[in-house]
Design a protein that fits this description.
The structure holds 2 protein chains of 2 kinds. Chain A is an all-alpha fold. Chain A has one domain: Formate dehydrogenase/DMSO reductase domain (Formate dehydrogenase/DMSO reductase fold, Up-down Bundle). Chain A contains 12 helices and 3 strands. Chain A has a two-stranded antiparallel ribbon with strand order 1-2. In chain A, strand 1 and strand 2 form a beta hairpin. In chain A, helix 2 packs across helix 8 and helix 3 packs across helix 8. The longest helix of chain A has 30 residues. Chain B is α+β, with helices and mostly antiparallel strands. Chain B has 7 helices and 11 strands. In chain B, the strands form 4 sheets. In chain B, strands 9-2-11-10 form a 4-stranded mixed sheet. A two-stranded antiparallel ribbon of chain B has the order 3-4. In chain B, strands 5-6 form a two-stranded antiparallel ribbon. Chain B is elongated and about 100 Å long. Classes of the chains: A mainly alpha, B alpha+beta. Chains A and B meet through helix 2, strand 3, helix 4, helix 5 and helix 6 of A and strand 1, strand 3, helix 2, helix 3 and strand 7 of B. Strand 3 of chain A pairs parallel with strand 1 of chain B, so a sheet runs across the interface.
Chain lengths: 349, 305
């Protein structure tokens, strides 16, 4: 039997017994453990792995980026805005409170609209409320929106009309307390998947998301409220920016090779832009608090930075689901480690 | 609204002595790559045509499992000794019957074993694993995905609203959203046929019994025996995949006998149901929520301007 293949590059495999394995997508080998520890500097994936013709193992995420990344961003903006609005209301900063209440209502409406728009069968949105399933963050989130949405709406409408001030204040405080939950439930939502770059970051992702949400809400306050009332918004923006940047940096360090999609391609580009915008906005918040124009510009940068973070996380997930190595290599390493440990506890991450 | 109860333990028989857990054992060592399972599945379940494509990489032209491919036959060519997949292993010893067909010398007969090329085909029919701990079912916000009395996982198409959450949740890349329809679809283990006492279409159509359907306990026993036979015959690369109730998805309802590592067939080597970490995720999220509340609270201290 002839063992050679005639290819465009000439005759290959002219000798039997060689090791070539059709279908393997091996990347250059090397000391992967040593490289991994160096974190950011690991440029080339140093992992050898096998796959089925290089095809991804996972089915690609079917969510649309503008819908679902927008849903993550607007939900975060709304939740943190409500909390900031409640604080502004309690400390007598009406202009800040009003602007943030409108933001919260607009944000949560947009978030809900994006979610419904992304459904394969939008007319069946209410099926989300058929059951309450604690194992599904989307189910928990739907019920959270059912509780939070009317509160945010009542806070905004009573704020605008001046009617029912007591109900308005109760709604503002209620929305303010529910806000942090609304801002962070989306982190478990994306992490509770088999997408490697999402799932492996589940410890830090909620902090990235609430930091991003706080930066966006603070930015909105700086953009919409007069500088005399915007001091808490500026501080929230700075706290949020620092939290988001620190959590995202730590997450990328800890995840090893699965963090690559946060540095490469569209996901990586968005994450870098997000970091630049967020830090620039935070600097503006610290230095430019006397200038209305500078405050507004910094606020806009913070909002854009927060949106970029959510889109960056979204695309990093898409990239990691689309390549078999992010699924195979960590699982293979886990198996090898377990085998080396003498068949320790099966499963487990 | 109803508080969704935790799905019944799929490893146990249903309440009141319901049917035992049913599943598939796909023995890829006898798969001949005929794709009868793919066709039978499409026909019985009336799955729409999704492109008559030529992938160009092998005889595989469905690529992988998806909304419109519930059985997928993988084809892998390898430069490995043929002996690893002797098809006659385990069959009764009998002289082959001479049909009087015109014959010719088999390739490599005259050159001897050393000169003979090492080559083997791996073929495997992939399907939904019907996991004991199924991520798709766990994350479904509508309750469209449910656990049947046979311990299988099925989508109710009249409830699914196409949120798409189950798609990235599946660690095997099985379930997918159908284009132009919007809903999620996957293998039902022929739930309709099971109710009528029929075996699923794919296993019914399989001409070599590579796909075996039955009571999961019995299938596991049969798989162990088959693995022992193959190992005895020197097929050292044979291994079971998904049969271990202690693995990351607590065992699958459809498991396999493979002749190489799972990733070669496009299967994850060590899948873990994502919801195993969910309690921890909620804890971290709670901590983050409190951090946000504290951070915003702290922003109201200090100078008024």
């Amino acid at each position: 039997m002839n063992t050679s293949d005639v290819t465009k590059q000439g005759v290959r495999g002219a000798r039997p017994g060689r090791e070539a394995v059709t279908g393997s997508a091996a990347v250059a080998g090397g000391d992967r453990r040593g490289r991994r520890r160096r974190g950011e500097r690991a440029v080339v994936p140093e992992a050898e792995f096998r796959s089925y013709y290089g095809k991804p193992i996972l089915n690609q995420i079917v969510w649309q980026a503008p819908d679902i990344a927008g849903y993550l961003f607007l939900g975060g903006l709304a939740g943190a805005s409500s909390t900031l609005a409640a604080g502004a209301e309690l400390t007598g900063r009406p202009a800040l409170a009003r602007a943030l209440k409108y933001t919260a209502l607009g944000g949560i409406s947009g978030s809900l609209a994006a979610l419904v728009h992304d459904l394969g069968r939008p007319a069946r949105f209410l099926n989300m409320l058929r059951v309450f399933r604690p194992t599904s963050p989307m189910s928990v989130g739907s019920w959270l929106l059912v509780g939070y949405g009317p509160l945010a709406g009542a806070a905004a409408v009573t704020g605008a009309t001046g009617l029912f001030p007591r109900i308005g204040r109760a709604a503002t405080l209620g929305a303010g307390l529910a806000g942090p939950a609304v801002a962070c439930y989306t982190a478990p939502l994306v992490c509770d998947t088999a997408v490697p770059s999402w799932h492996e970051g589940y410890r830090e992702m909620p902090f990235v998301f609430v930091g991003s949400a706080a930066a966006a809400a603070g930015g909105m306050g700086m953009l919409a409220a007069p500088v005399e009332q915007a001091a808490p918004a500026r501080r929230t923006a700075v706290i949020g920016s620092v939290l988001e940047t620190a959590a995202a940096t730590y997450m990328e360090r800890r995840m090893g090779m699965v963090a690559e999609p946060y540095r490469q391609g569209r996901g990586g580009a968005l994450m870098r832009v997000a970091k630049a915008l967020t830090l620039a906005g935070a600097a503006g918040a610290l230095l430019g608090h006397r200038s209305r124009a500078l405050s507004a510009a910094s606020g806009a940068a913070l909002l854009a930075g927060s949106a970029c973070t959510r889109f960056g996380v979204f695309w990093a997930g898409v990239q990691s689901a689309g390549e078999p190595k992010y699924t195979v290599v960590p699982q293979r390493r886990r198996l090898e480690k377990r085998r080396a440990d003498g068949h320790g506890e099966p499963g487990g991450s | 609204m109803a508080i969704d109860e935790q799905p019944a333990d799929p490893t146990a028989a249903g309440p009141g002595g319901g049917p035992p857990r049913m599943g598939f054992f796909t023995d890829t060592s006898v798969c001949i790559g005929c794709k009868a399972c793919e066709v039978a599945c499409k026909e019985w379940n009336m799955i729409p045509e999704d492109g008559l494509d030529f992938t160009g990489m092998s005889f595989d032209n469905s690529g992988g499992l998806g909304a419109d491919t519930w059985r997928h036959v993988a084809f892998i060519e390898q430069r490995a000794p043929l002996g690893f997949q002797e098809t006659g292993v385990g069959r009764p010893e009998r002289e082959p019957v001479d049909l009087g067909m015109p014959s010719f010398e088999r390739p490599g007969d005259s050159t001897g074993a050393d000169e003979r090329g090492d080559f083997r085909w791996l073929m495997s029919s992939d399907v939904c694993k019907h996991c004991t701990s199924a991520a798709c079912l766990d994350v479904c916000p509508t309750g469209s995905l449910f656990r049947t009395e046979y311990g299988t996982v099925v989508v109710q198409e009249d409830i699914c609203n196409g949120c798409g959450y189950c798609v990235p949740a599946c660690p095997y890349g099985v379930i997918d959203q159908r284009k132009g329809d919007g809903r999620a679809w996957k293998c039902t283990l022929c739930y309709d046929r099971l109710g009528d006492g029929l075996e699923p279409a794919c296993s019914k159509a399989c001409p070599t019994d590579s796909i075996q359907f039955g009571d999961l306990d019995e299938l596991r026993q049969r798989a162990d025996e088959r693995l022992g036979t193959l190992h005895e015959a020197g097929v050292s690369s044979a291994r079971l995949y998904g049969e271990d109730p202690d693995d990351g998805v607590d065992g699958t309802g459809a498991f396999f006998l493979l002749l190489d590592e799972p990733e070669v067939y496009g299967l994850p080597p060590d899948p873990v149901v994502t919801t195993r970490d969910l309690p921890s995720m909620w804890t971290y999220a709670g901590a983050a929520a409190l951090t946000l509340l504290a951070g915003v609270g702290a922003a109201f201290f200090g100078r008024r301007r």
